[in-house]
Write the structure tokens for this entry.
Amino acid sequence: MIELVHLQRQFESMKHEVLARIADVIDSGTYILGPNVRQFETEAAEKIGVKHAIGVGNGTDALVLTLDAYGIGPGDEVITTPYTFFASAEAISRVGATPVFADIRPETYNIDPEKVEKAITPRTKAIIPVHLFGQPADMDDIMEIAERRGLLVIEDACQAFGAVYKGRRVGSIGHAACFSFFPTKNLGTMGDGGLITTNDDQLAERIRQLRHHGSTRKYFHERIGYNSRLDEIHAAVLRIGLARIDAWNAQRARLAFRYQERLADHPLLKIAAPAPDRSHIYHLFCLESPERDRVMQELQKAGIQCAVYYPLPLHLQEAYRHLGYKRGDCPVSEKLSETLFAIPLSPFLREDEQDAVIDALWNIEGGKAG
């Protein structure tokens, strides 16, 4: 089986260093909010280009804590995309606010600023654009709307660590940003982890309180908080990955270009070209096909793993039935949910394996000789 993501190979490539760092953590006797967390936060902030980076338990918590720290809650609305992982909207609901869905652009799969503008009401407090699959959203347009309408922008950068938009790393453009270090992310750990970035000193202080039961001094609590801390072992692993992330992202982009070049004329497939003025780090490499189910079945028969991202847009999920959305409200997202799928891509995908994926796609009936 050619896997969608080669996690074992990735961790094998740094196994000795990881084991040594874990041994150091064990020997230290400090396992929560210790030196590795502080050093990772400093190194990540420098990499992204922000004043503050705060490690938390996971990417979902990063979104929840950021919304909570901004005081967003019942009666408020937050605009986001319906074409993303559930957590982007779930976090809004978790703080008691209401997610409002604005459809995406077919060229980038990212939220459409024109649709965002139309979705704003007097109750709107923030916009959460998602840098989907590793490609930055149209941040200039989104930030202009937010400034003009007095709104916050929280980047959901959970799939895009290291991506660049017009010379700036994602995570440094909005008022705050959230990252996930789930193992399959382009920067991942061996479990769960998350990060919040911002240049806002007061926000950073509130988030540091919230992640640790609303406390900055042991047994004294200034607010009702959470238990959401990045632990020492995950921080140690992430520091190793952080030193390699630019090289890993460059390899992802190189392999993505090979796919684009060799599948460009395939009659059953459509590949969206990356947008200009930004880097796409290809957390996932996705294709569109009107015959998605048949294409995926043929790939699986050939021993090639593939997966659908995402089979049902958020506005049509059962959990959001009460919001009253119906099919046809977000037509671009709805179409992609029926046509889009991902094929293997990671920094550790070998070229011979990639060639096997390409050959298998060309060998599907309805294609042509590759």
